[in-house]
Structures are given as structure tokens and as C-alpha cells.
Amino acid sequence: MAYKNLKLAERKIELDAKKSKKDIEIAESRFITERFSKAVEQLVTNNNITVVMSGIYTLSKIASDSPEYHFLVMKVLASFIRGKPLEYAPQDSSNSQGYPKVRLTIQEAITAIGQRNYRYDVSGETLDLSRSLFVRANLVNANFRGINLREANFGNTNLEGVDFSGADLEGAIFYGSDLRNAILKDTKLKGAKYCSETRFPSNFDPDIEGMEKQ
Fold first, then answer.
1. Residues 99-122: tens digit of each pLDDT
2. Residues pairing with 173 in the sheet
3. End-to-end distance of the chain based on CA atoms, in angstroms?
4. Is the pTM of this model over 0.70?
5. Per-residue confidence at 94, pLDDT binned at 50, 70, 90?
6. Which long-range contacts link 101-108 to residues 24+ away (Cβ below 8 Å)?
């Protein structure tokens, strides 16, 4: 009898432990979902730069800590970047050197996408950054593998170490860009624009790749 009671007690403890673990997982999932929703709201409904930056930091943290949210976060950030205008020098500025350029909030979102783990990409889906403006953005060592970057503008940008493997860059703009150490394996570049000041990797022929010199 004592042995039977012991086994029943052990079974109850085991079931309670499983239930507690499940409850913790549900609570954690709910917490992440709430953080994600709030961060997205900060991006799309607020013009306060501090609030927007906070939303981007939160999303970056979620992408880092929760693989199941990783690609979804990247899609949200890509949507945030697309179509955003460049920042120009103030009207009363005596020095316009370095302008136009991407805005601070856009730079943070670009940095987050540039650090993405492509192994968490969803099969059959592609991040869409087409027609985005990356002029003078900090893209050093960014991971842009397999991204849709058609007609994106990389003018006057240092693209050192950027991984464009498998990316679609058809019609993109590279006026004055430095691509010397960029990775261009299996990259689609037909119709991409460049000029005499654009720098390419050694043994790379832009004309063979279908690029157009302007």
C-alpha cells in the first residue's frame, strides 16, 4: 500500500511539473506576443524618435531571443524601411557634406536586418527592400543574402563586406559606391546603374553582369 501511494505521489509530482512547465511556456509566449505588438505599434503610430528607436531595439531583441519570431521581425523592419525619404541638410546649414543620408531610425532598422540569421528565413518567402534608399548608410558586413533589393539606391555608400549572395539587385543604383569587398555570388544585377567612380571587386566585370554605366 505504501509503495502504491509513493508511486501515485511521484506521478502527481510529474504531472504538476509538466503543467507548471506548460504554464510557464504559455506565459512566456504571451509576454513575447505583447512585446512584439507594442513594438510594432511604436514603429507605425509614433513620430517621436525615442519611441520609434525603442520599438526597433525591442524587435531586434525579440528576433535575437526568439527564433520563431525572427523572420517576422525582419519583415516588419523591412516594411518600415521601404519608401522612407532621405534626410537632407537643414536649410540654414553651412555644410551640406555627407547629405543626403538615411535617417537615424532607418539606420537602426537597417542594422537589425543586416545582422539577421538567414537560417531562420521562411521557405518560399523573401524580404522585400525594393526601391529602398540606403544612401550613405552604414552597411559594413551587412547580411543581405537573398533579399529583394530591386531598384534600391546605394549611391555613395561603402558596401565593404556586404553579403549580396543570391540577392535581386536588378535596376539598383550604385553611383559612387564601393563594392570592392562585397560578396556578389549569384547576384542578379541586370540593369543596375553605376558610374566611373563606382568600385568593384577584382576580376568583376559589371558589363558581363548586365549592369549599365551612366
1. 999 999 999 999 999 999 999 999
2. 153, 193
3. 91
4. yes
5. confident
6. 101/135, 101/136, 101/137, 102/133, 102/134, 102/135, 102/136, 102/137, 104/49, 104/53, 105/49, 105/52, 105/53, 105/56, 106/80, 106/81, 106/133, 106/137, 107/137, 107/138, 108/53, 108/56, 108/57
